[in-house]
Amino acid sequence: MTGDFQASSLTRLLGRFGRLLPSAPGFTTRYGLLTLLVYVAAVVGFVAFAIQVELLLGNPLAAPRAPGVARNATDAFWHLATAFALVLPTRRRGALWLAPLLALGLDVDHVFGYYLPTVTPRSAHDLFFVMLVGILLYLIRGRPAALIAVGATVGHVAVDGGSFPFLGPLTRTLFPLPFVAQAVLVVLAALLFFLAFEPLSALRKNTNWMPLVVSCGIVVGAVYFLLPLLPALSSF
């Protein structure tokens, strides 16, 4: 009986919390799920294309090498949590679940390298992918989807650690991100999430910019203090 009472109380609490959060016009669950589907398909398509270009340039395929379950789980939780913190200031129900799933969805490119052969790891952690997915989603899903997707991608890279093939598939060179660049990208991701629903002028209100500052501060602090303690993340 006690367990049933606690479960029902939690359900009522979450329901009340959800009713306090506004929804954006047209931002339905179907809209969010289709956005996520297009995004994941774009990740897979971009990586498959990049591999073909790299092979044409004479680069060899590398055999897959899967990491442990614990490392995958830690990495997944890290991206879900940081994206949720950055999108929370939007106070939009749909965005609170879509942004974290999009941030996690970028790591679909790990399928290539951990389970399928690849040339360069993390191929979708790439500037060309950011531009292409933003344009694609803007054309077929509209402005909110494009800004949330680009924000999720930028936020993912900001907290990821390690080095990235930003100019792939034209070059396999990996570029590390210094902490200052990570902090800038964290702020950019939070702004993109916010601008998906509000004009820039809305940041004049204390009730809008203060949550944004707190959110960015929490994530930047986590990157500075926690990321060095999680070296496994840097290999993802």
Please tell me about this protein's structure:
- This protein has one domain (26-235).
- Helix content is 64%, strand content 2%.
- The protein contains 9 helices and 2 strands; from the N terminus they run H-H-H-H-H-H-H-E-E-H-H.
- A two-stranded antiparallel sheet has the order 1-2.
- Helix 3 (69-87) runs antiparallel to helix 4, helix 3 runs antiparallel to helix 9 and helix 8 (179-195) packs antiparallel against helix 9 (206-225).
- The chain starts with a helix and ends in an 11-residue tail after the last helix.
- The mean pLDDT is 89.
How far apart are the first and last residues' alpha carbons, in Å? 44 Å
Order of helices and strands: HHHHHHHEEHH
Could you estimate the helical fraction of the residues in percent? 55-70%
Secondary structure category: mainly alpha
Total beta-strand segments: 2
The total count of helices amounts to 9
Coarse morphology: globular
Mean of residue pLDDT values: 89
- What is Rg? 19 Å
The domain tally reads 1
Write out the strand line-up for the largest beta sheet, numbering strands in chain order: 1-2
Q: Please give the largest β-sheet.
A: 2 strands, antiparallel
Q: Runs with pLDDT <50, length 5+? A: none
Strand content: under 5%
Keyword list:
236 residues; mainly alpha; two-stranded antiparallel ribbon; 2 strands; 64% helix; globular
Would you spell out the secondary-structure blueprint of this structure?
Layout: H1 2-20, H2 29-56, H3 69-87, H4 93-105, H5 111-114, H6 127-140, H7 143-160, E1 163-164, E2 175-176, H8 179-195, H9 206-225
Antiparallel strand pairs: 1-2
Helix pairs in contact: 2-4, 3-4, 3-7, 3-9, 4-7, 6-7, 7-8, 8-9
